[in-house]
Amino acid sequence: MTGPQRRAQLIEVSRAIFAAKGPDAASMEEIAAAAGVSKPVVYEHFGTKERLYETVVQHEMAVLDSTIREALSLGRSRYRIEQAVLALLTYVETNPEGFSIISRDPGTAGGYETLLNNATESVTPILADAFVRAGFDPSMAVLYGNCLVGMVSQTARWWLEKRSPDKETVAAHIVNLCWNGLAGMESAPILRGRAEAAVAEQGATFGAGAEADPTAEVE
């Protein structure tokens, strides 16, 4: 193999071992044996096991981050959210080892926490635009962006283990909860601490119909 080919092979082999055992229990000897090379070859490419693990995480992150950003790039607001949720679940379905690695240690440099932050940054402008159209405070969009991304993320972790129902059904129900929850959102929500508490004003138009979800493409 050429150097780049060998490096790609070692990343692929180590991904399966890291996913099964975690970074602490996995060994360079085991990775070298699975790749059919000597241990010095692995060290030559990555230096340390920690660096190899970081490389695997960053590789998976790049693939998933690109997939989600592409899904959020075009179409109506609801469509973009649907496609982003489906893209994440498709990645979980086709690459469970990679998702297991990046979601295992959220704080790993360049790992899942970074992915969630990137997703929130991508979703927030979509929500902010919808807030403006509905007459809501757009500064709250980042809060709702974090709520939405957190819900999708946790559900994806659950589905990684269950794999039932199918991903399309899961995506449809996630979007049903988040989008229709947004559609009936209150413009100035309050906690109902007492039975006689005032009722907050309903945001009747948010997310309702084509006017609230324009077809304009995003650059």
Percent range for β-strand residues:
under 5%
What string, H for helix and E for strand, traces the elements in order? HHHHHHHHH
Distance between the termini: 40 Å
As a percent range, the share of helical residues equals 55-70%
Major sheet characteristics: none
Count of beta strands:
0
Shape: elongated
Mean pLDDT across all amino acids: 85
User: What would you call the quaternary organization?
Assistant: single chain
The secondary structure category is mainly alpha
Number of helices: 9
Rg, alpha carbons: 21 Å
Regions with little confidence, pLDDT below 50 for 5+ residues? 215-219
Q: Strands, helices and their partners?
A:
Layout: H1 3-25, H2 28-35, H3 39-46, H4 49-71, H5 77-94, H6 96-104, H7 112-134, H8 141-162, H9 167-183
Helix pairs in contact: 1-2, 1-4, 1-6, 2-3, 4-5, 4-6, 4-7, 5-6, 5-8, 5-9, 7-8, 8-9
